[in-house]
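Journal club prep, notes for RB
We'll compare a predicted complex against what the paper describes. Inputs for the iron/sulfur cluster case:
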Amino acid sequence: MEEEDPEKPEFHPVHVNWLLTKACSAGCRHCYIRGRFGGPELGTGEALALLEEMAAAGVRSVCFTGGEFLARPDALALAGAAVRLGLEVSVVTSGFPITEELAESLAVLGATTYLSVDGVGPETHERVRGPGSWEVVRRAARLLARAGARVCTVTALSRLNVADAGRIPAAAGEFGAEVVCLLPAMPQGAMGRELVLGAGEFAAVVRSAAKGAGAAGVELHLWCAPFAGILGDLGAGVRWWPCRGAPVADISPDGKLLLCDVLDFAFADLRGGNFGEVCQEIAGMPEFAEAHFPVRPAEVCRKCPAWGECRGGCFARAYLDFGSLSVPDPLCPRAAGLLG
Ligand code: SF4
Ligand code: SF4
């Protein structure tokens, strides 16, 4: 029997973010997928088999995204298969593919639909997502509400829409959103660096959105902002999560298990491998250990009251900005020297 190595990291994801296709007709300016992931996308049979392996390995929820996942002809078949396997299912969409029938099917499946809403009105939303997109997303919200589907909104924050941040929670509430999600747009794919928010700007935006969420009485989730705990009292309805060490897996359209969907290196191939075993393969990579279990954290992080939950913040941003997975998150205002 093989002896267990106590130093070897293990990886047992309970949630999967699955970019099932890079195809999308929208052409958003902040798209982090465009121009990446060149290999052939997983076919229906491959994706169904992978779902079974995930369920067997202990995965409990899957978020189907892209590109535009709902534009895949097999989208409902895959979502339905995931539900039958006992997985909690969510989908991210621009709203373009949503029809009355599709909205009803998503409601019947009990799937949560994350609608991408990038402003509080047509001017900002269409600056990011193109002409006509505002009416499309509003119509999608109406159809989903009429069908009784669970809706949340998700907004990627950049210099294109930052002025709307404080009003997004109230606007999202009008979309019927149970939860409003915000995340910082990442400098990857089509997203230009000149559009990326700095640490001070992002902190101001989060505080303003938290205030807006409190006033509107909606729950606010901050994605990819593990340092949010140092931003002061954001209110009881605001939540965020750690990233380093989190049991979350990302999968690319061409079937690669990724260190993070924002990064283009350190991946393991799921084609021809078993999900649970491939997770251990990526856990054995030096990059995995460096990202998730930094051995020599920076002094600013070691002395930080939020270290226990944050552990240096987002390793993908750290890599994209500084070429290192273990330096502090450049979006953290404390690491950027803006907080004491
Ligand atoms: S590494 Fe960064 S971008 Fe990737 S999931 Fe974690 S917080 Fe988000
Ligand atoms: S200083 Fe480091 S540990 Fe503290 S919040 Fe910032 S990134 Fe996280």
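Talking point for the session: The first helix runs from residue 44 to 56.
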